[in-house]
Each structure stands twice: as C-alpha cells, then as structure tokens.
Queue: 2 jobs
Job 1
Amino acid sequence: MAAGADGPWKERPDRSTIEKLNESEEPMAEDLNPHSIARTQYDNTLPYVDSLVGWKGMAEWLFAPEKIVTVTLPVVMDDGLVHTFQGYRVIHNTGRGPGKGGIRFHPSVAEDEVKALATWMTWKCALAGIPFGGAKGGITCDPSKLSLDEKRHLTRRFIAALGDNIGPHTDVPAPDMYTDAQTMGWIYDTYSMMHHGTNSLPVVTGKPLDLGGIVGRSTATARGVYFCTERFLASGRLPKMTTIAGARVAIQGFGNAGRHAATIFRDAGAVIVGVSDTSGSALAPKGLDVAKVGAHKDSTGRVVGAPGTTSGSPLKVLEAECDILIPAAMENQITMENADRIKAALISEAANGPTTPGADVILADRGITVMPDILANAGGVVVSYFEWVQNLQNEEWDEKRVDDSLRKHIYRSTDAVMARYDEMVANLPMYQARWQEMRPGAPALRHPDYRIAAAVVAVGRAKATAEARGVWP
Ligand code: NAD
C-alpha cells in the first residue's frame, strides 16, 4: 500500500489525545474543547478511508471549515439599554450541497463549539445521503433571561448581519438548542424582507406549519433516534435486547429531542425510568408517566418534582439503571469522569457530541454500545431536507410520506454503518498493517466502534465528492 510519505499526517500530532492521557503519569484534565474532539474523531477515521493519504493535504482540507462569520449584535433590551451579543455562523463544507445546520442560543456558544457542530453536520448529511454540506450557527446568550421581544430583535439582527451568507442555495439554518419554529419564522421573515420577489421559504427549515413548515419536523430528531435504535436492535447485535418494547430508557434533556423521544419510546412499549433538564433529574425505576412529567414541566418549567418521581442532580439520569440511555441535552455529558458509572447497554445519541473520545474508550471496554450522534440524531436534518424540497417545489408533504421517507433514510444509513463496521472488524489486520506502513511506529489501531464506522462512511463520501469535483481552479 502506498505510504504517502508527504501526506497530510505529518502536520498532525503523532498520538491521539487518549493515548497521551493513558501514558501520562499525572492525571491530565480531559480535553473538552468540542473542536479538538471533532479532530480526534476525524483522525480516528483516517486509517480506514482509502486513498485519503494519496492526495496530498486532502485530509487537512476536508477537516478545515470553509467559512467562519462572526458578527456583533447590538440589541435594545426591554429596559432601554443596549446589550451587545456575539453571533457565529460557520460553514464547514459545501462540497455536497448548501450548508445545513441549526442555530443555537446558549451561554456556551463559542467559535470552537460552532466549528465542531458544523463539522459534525457535514458528516451527518453525507451519512444520511442528503445533498447538503455542514454548517452551524449560534449566539452567545442566556435565552432564559430574554423576553420574547428581545429574542425576536436578536434573531432579526443576527439574520440581517449574516446577509447573503445564508440563502436557499448557499446555507440553510434550522432550529437547535433554545431556538424553535417561532425563531425560524422570524428568520424567514427577516430574510424575505431583504429579498423581495423571490421564494425565500427554502432559506430556513423547521418553520411553523403556517409558514411553509413540514408536518413532523418537530418530532423528527426523536423519531430518527427511534428508527436508528429499532434498526440496530433488530439486527440482533445485542442478543439480550432485540426490540425497544420492554426496554428501560433514561433520557437526559427534556426539550425538543428529549421530550419527543420520551413519548415515542413510551409509545413503542419502553419504560421511561428517568428524564432530566437543567433543573435536575426526575427518576422512577419502575417507570414514570411521561404525560404527567410533561404537564409538570409545562406548568413549572422543570421536570424536577414531577408526580411519581424522585429528584436527582441533572447528571444523575445518565447513571440510572436502564437498558437504553438517550443523551438529548448537549456536548460533553458522558466523559472520562462518569463513563464508568453508565449502566445502559446501549447509548443512542440524540444530542450532538454528548460523549467524549476518552469516554468512548471506557464505554467500549465495558461492552457498552453507542449509536453515534451523526447517525442517531440525523432525523432532524433529514426532515429539514424534505421541508427544503417541499418549499422549492411549492408542495405539501403529508405525514405518511414524511415518516416513511424518514424511516427509509435512517434504516439505510444504520445499515450502511453496521456493514462498514463489520468490514472494518473483519479486515482490521489489513488496516493495521497499512497504517503501520503509512506511519511507522504509530500505536496500534483500537478496535473499531460504531462512531468510527459512521464517520468512515461519511468522510469517505465527502472525500469521494471532493475527488469528483477536483480542487478549484
Ligand atoms: P432544546 O433547547 O429544545 O432542549 C434542550 C434540553 O436540554 C432542555 O430540556 C434543557 O433543560 C436540557 N439541558 C440543557 N443542558 C442540560 C444539562 N446540562 N443537563 C440536563 N439537561 C440539560 O434543544 P434540542 O433541540 O432538544 O437539542 C438538544 C440536543 O439535541 C442538542 O445537542 C442539539 O444539538 C441536538 N439536536 C437537536 C436537533 C433538533 O432538531 N432540535 C437535531 C439534532 C440534534
């Protein structure tokens, strides 16, 4: 196998973060920078992506974000004072189509977080087989302290500041943490006011139904998690659990992804043993009443204290006795610190980046399987794609068409990941030998997991597209 002596590897550190952590005499703090984590995950794919090394610098190009836009957003607050916010939009890669990715309002929003989330979107869209690249956006703010008016002003100012960095054929935002259909409606309206006389509906997805939105978008992420989990279990890879019915499920996060997941998994016969939000965990080992917890959340703003549950810290739900754990909150929740205490047999990631690379190693050692974010939570972006098609064609899809098409997409990508995983495991000695030849002295490859397999499928597709297009000019 060609060694590619002057390939992209040489700029990279020789060893992965995990290896360094293992070798260190002093316990090192785990690197929780999302962009470093995205890089570690990307590096893990490279030994398996054929010929990536053959094109000089290709690996660096595929990882680098195409465009980073930072905007300053002054907003007149309700008290009459001007508050200045920072907004970001990162387009990671548009090789396979326009940028696609949510907009998040959260205090933790920072350039590296948005870069990581945009990178994961590139891999997610490629894996789902939809014609989009990856993008993400966010505003650093505490949405719990914003009035509706302030949120609307902030959203409009952000979209005006981004100008033609977004557009139906350049970059198409969607909802993410603490943004919703209403926020998407304001985004559409702002963009539309700046582009009179054109069909601007496809500029943003996740819109209200009365504004070109698609039926099933709000439940799509959770439904995708369900379809992925169902397909994986039906494959018989976890002999003790072949269906969702009867499984005990714990869910971290009770927003769009987590709350719908609780309902959908319950409807499929699962027992929901715990949910959580920022207020804490609501636990019930014998099963909680999802409707009652939802009603409590609606009236009090928190899941803690819901009838029939006991309370714990926000992270407690991750350690609940359960069969399936669904992290549906945010990044870096399952880390080297708590991975030893996870009791689930299967983790289906509704959130983006909930598990760190260090935790992945611990979970694998403990025989815990992970359905990774770019596979398990792709339902949202897949139905966003349907909404975009619906808007471009001035059509209206019905619920059955959306659900059947979503199931088909998620089953197909889950099958592709399982097949690639099997191939990587079967040919591990060959990949090992090839890697050693390319990088003499490199540590042995660790046994593949489904996260690496999913990223290998995705990066392989992004690479094939880049090769087919060539490097401009
Ligand atoms: P959301 O704003 O609707 O809900 C977030 C939930 O997480 C809230 O219940 C909040 O209380 C909870 N939460 C936040 N921090 C927490 C913590 N530290 N501990 C416990 N709970 C916490 O957001 P969402 O749209 O449901 O997004 C959740 C995750 O799913 C994010 O990682 C997001 O990127 C991912 N995701 C969302 C979509 C989508 O379509 N909305 C699609 C794919 C992935």
Job 2
Amino acid sequence: NFAKFLIFKLPATTCMTLQGKSCLKCISHKCGKEYPIPVFEFNCTCGNLLDVKYNDTPSQNLKEVFYQRRNPQGSIFNESGVWRFRELLNFCEIDTEDLTQCSQHLVSLDGAEGRQSKPYHMSKVAKFVGIENEKLMLQPEGYNPSGSFKDNGMSAAVTHAKLVGAKKIICASTGNTSASAGMFAANENMECDVYIPEGEIAPGKLSQAYQFGTQMIHVNGNFDDAFTKSLTAAKESGSYTVNSINPFRIEGQKTIPYRLLEFLEWKTPDWIVYPGGALGNTSSCGKCLMELYEWGWIKKIPRIAVINAEGANTLDVLYNGKFEDTELRWNDGSPNTELIERYYTKMNDDGIRPKTKATAIQIGKPSNLLKGIRALEYTDGIVISVTDKEMLDGMSVVGLNGFDCEMASGAVPAGIKKLLHENIMKKDDEIVGILTGRQKEPLLPIDYHNEPTNQFARPPKR
Ligand code: F0G
C-alpha cells in the first residue's frame, strides 16, 4: 500500500509553484524578512530562526472534520495523528481532500505517526504528584512508530525535504531524533547522516539508528558539539537539516497539543507540561496556542511549564534570572541576546558541561531558545529544574500505571509534583503533561529497582 504512494512522487520542480498561501518569516520583529516555502536554509540572513506563516484563518468547521477522520475510511492520512490535522499545517498548499495530492506530498509511515497518542488519566501518578486523578492527564508520545514524539515533527520535516528535492537528511541527536530521521529516510529512500555524542546516548536509540541504515558520525563531545558539526556538514554537502531549528519540525509537533485539545473538546487545560531540551516542543506548543487563539479556536491560553534537568538547566538559569540577576525575556521580539552570549561564554570559560543521566535532554545550548522564551512569554509560562533522582521516580511511577516512558519524560511528573508542592500549580488546576518518549535504556529501570532505597523500587527476590 505504502509502496504505491512512492510511485506517485512528483519531481521537485513541480512543487515550486506554490500559491503563496504560506511563507517562512523571520521571528525577529525588527527583521521580519519573508522567504518562499521551498528553501532549505532555516536561518534568516540576520541569523534568527524562521516560522511558517499561513495567510488564511482556518474555519472552525474543521474541528468536526478532524473528529470524523478518526474513522479513517481507508485513508492513511486520516489515520495519521499528524496528517489528520493537515489543514493546519498545509505548507505544501495542496488540496487536502484530494488523496492523490496527499499521497504525492505528505510523508507518512502508513498513518502510524501520532496515531496512538492521546491523553490518559494515570491514578498512581496523580497520587504521586498530589492532585485528584481527574485533574491530571498525561499524553504518552512514546508509542509513536520510532518510540518518541519526534515522529510528529519528522513526518512534516521530511515532507518538506521531499518538496525541495533533498537527497540526504542530516541531524545531530541525543538519540530519538536520529531514530525518527532514520526511520522516515529509510521509507523515503533518502540518505541519512546522524551526528551522535559518542557514549552519551541510550543504546536502544543507537541501535535503532543503525537498524534503519543511517550513517553514524561519532562526535567526541556533547550534543551541542555534535549539533555544530552537523550544521557545518549540512552546509558543505547541501544536505537537509531535520533538527528542530527546521520550522517544519515545529509545524508537525503542533499536532501534539492538537490531539490533547481535541480530546478535551478544545477546552484548554490550565497547564501543559514538557521536559525541556532543545525547546522544539516548547516552541511548537507556543506557536500552536498563538495560532489557535488568534483564529478564535480557543478562548483561554494554557500556561506552559518547562522542566529542565538540574544538570542541563540553561533555560532555568536564563529565564529565572540566575545569571547576572537578569531574567531573559522575549521582550516583544527584542530579547537580550547579549545576555545569552555572555552566559555561553561563561559556560565555555568555566567548563560547564550539561550532565544528567537523562541523556535525551543533556543539552547546554537549546537551539530554539528564542522561540522557547517567546512561547513562555505568550503563555505566562514557567521553568523549573528537577534532579536525576526525581526524574527516575517520575519515570517509575508512570510505569506503575502500565505505561512506559524514558527518564527525560519522567521530568514531567517530577516537575508537576514540585510545582504543586510550591503552590505554583493549584490543586484545582487542570494539568496535561507530555510523556515524550519510550524507555530505550533498559538498564535504567533495572538499576532503579535493584536499589531498595528508591521510592518505587521492587528489588528481585531469590
Ligand atoms: N524528551 C525526549 C524523549 C527527547 O528525546 C527530547 C529531545 C526531549 C524530551 C527534549 O525535547 O528538544 O523539544 O525540548 N531529544 C532530541 C534528540 C534532542 O536528539 O533526540 P525538546
């Protein structure tokens, strides 16, 4: 079935005649330069990141269309939890009801991306964080085909890669991005190079990348070093970057909040909670909420809470004024970028390297920092950090509800617990947390449960 769709691939040139219903636009208010959709340079000439912008306001009747597509009627694009919402990320400017056009353009793993994701109540997590069960929902994104939320964004990014006729995609990764990129590249017959911080990623993620036929490039350094190298390599070889600086990744990841909002009948919760790494998710959720509010689809804006690992807490430090007593803010499009530069220089000078067992979020220089603080400003968001031990407890209590998640996702229950304890979140608030990825580091739970002093440990008997 899927092979059939590949036959209909259009040559890239056919796609260059977009109708101008969308464009790329620099996020800086001072600059605001616009670019056509079919480019693959994701930085403005002024150095800032780009957003996808749409000219039209989508009709609210689409809420009913999306709901009806949950009976997919044989279409993988209705089955897909990403492309079910295709009108809201129609940067290919196709006729979204024309399934031939969908097949020609939209990249899908046979409808599997986002298909299984929706929010659930998890009573043991609610008890752990200290709130009534009906007030808390968690949305596992680990049941995506490659085992993490990345598939939401990757299906959209690889769709754009196809649109511009890219032959090779490239990324740096703490593991999940490489697994997702490798999976989609394999399906689309594209080459895929992945830059990996050697020895710093979960074996389960590494093995996926090998399995999907990626070319691994080991970098002696951390994720930030690998990312810099991958960008240089992409520029030199004309390859297509699929890290979250890619604005189409951000578009695809908007479907994470779409699915949770749809589940809540488009009534917004008080909080949406994410672990914070490169801040792609934070940026994407912020953009999603800005658009929905602007279109009149939602009446209230939920607050975003980002949970950093204590050992990789750049956002926490900068946002909460822990460096130079200055709180970094989006500041209506004029953020204090010198503050960021000074902090990065200090990190280099003092040898501050991100360090956490939650390797997925072991990131010192979040590449979406500015989009992230824009999302936080728009949503009156907050940022805190949690320890490795707190994340492991969070991960483990999710398991006791019959769901599994990885340690970085354990930051979400851990962070909610802390925020409730500090009375920043209130007992009658409605909270939705995103469990970003599935367990791919088998030794972590084994070690956790073999240590009897851990809160949820159940050590083996002899
Ligand atoms: N959770 C998991 C499971 C992740 O893999 C990542 C990022 C994050 C959270 C952080 O998300 O970057 O949107 O703030 N992993 C990337 C990777 C960096 O390479 O797989 P973010």
